[in-house]
Amino acid sequence: MDFCKYYDFEYEEIHRYLANKNIGRVLLQFPEGLQPCIDNVVDELKRRFPDIEFYISTNPSYGSCLVDEYSAREIGAQLIIHFGHYEYPGYRPSIDVLYIGVKRLNIDIQTIGRILDDICGEKNISKLCLATTAQHIKDIYMVIDRVERCKIFIKGTIYGCIPLNPDNCDAIVIISGGKFHCISQSLALLSMNPKPRIFCIDPYIQSVIDPEPEVEKILRTRMWKMFQASNAKKWLIVTGFYGQYRENIVKKLVEKLKSLGKEYRVVKSLRFDREILANIDAEHNYDAIVVTSCPYIAFDLKDYGKPVLTVGEAFMVLENNFSSYRYPW
Ligand code: SF4
Q: Which Enzyme Commission number(s) are listed (predicted)?
């Protein structure tokens, strides 16, 4: 497939890992956006490693929070190769995992270097903290030496639910295609004081995006959702699998709901979407829903008939504390 030629599936890295290891069966896992390339990748892996059996997981792979341990155990795989993300902090799968970032090729890094230098030239910026996705991190290490007007600190991979710590940063730069990482970092900064400036660079169109207008719009929607949930009597708590199973958060929510005399149910879902909401008739059975697995789901379900909240929003409602927006937990 033509689209796949823009990605480096890092076969040499896989080769180095598999060489001299006695591995007979491997489970491959790809993020949704790279699944059209599965066939090409398996062809290449079969060519290089004819004695290894490769199985493909099509279970959700929105992030490295969802390493498909269950499927790997079921088929007796000795290794999971998880493409498209690096390890999710705080989650160590029970099976060996090789994370392959899948570098995006043909990115104009000279222009990105120039954009970074321009940002450094802005007033009061001497320390710039930068985070990006697995697809661009290697490029970024190559480009920062060319930035002369300020010091850049690479804070590693960005996750939509783990905002970058802005301590000692005059400004933050997020380099990522799409808006989610930029918006989620901006939302997290809302409760911080002092709040560093944020710049978002889309590496595909090589331009700086100002997240403010979108963040304001999202915030208005989120405040409305919280208002709708403020008198909710019966809550649905959604928890996930693997790195999205957040036992302590569920426990705290349950304690809070109990202390307020609210009713609740807890569901565990690998994939939580409109189909599941319809199956359990959530619109009639619950007054509010809080998603502990992934904050993106709450944003994605913003038009659902009942308020679907992130964990931070649920605590704002249950603690009746709206002094600042709390994201993500
Ligand atoms: S934002 Fe969601 S998909 Fe991304 S790492 Fe966090 S929990 Fe996983």
A: 2.5.1.108
What are the tokens at 169? 């940063």
Q: Kindly state the tokens that stand for 190.
A: 């809302």
pLDDT at 192: 87
ipTM score for this prediction: 0.99
Q: Is the domain covering 227-318 a CATH 3.30.565.10 domain? A: no
In the chain, CATH 3.40.50.11860 covers 227-318
The reply to whether ligand 1 has any atom less than 6 angstroms from the CB of 160 is: yes
pLDDT confidence tier of residue 145, bands split at 50, 70 and 90? confident
> Is the distance from the beta carbon of residue 163 to the nearest atom of ligand 1 less than 6 Å?
no
CA-closest candidate to residue 309, choices 190, 229, 252, 239: 229
290 vs 308: CA distance, rounded Å: 6
Among 157, 249, 296, which residue has the most ligand 1 atoms within 8 Å of its CB, making it the best to mutate?
A: 296
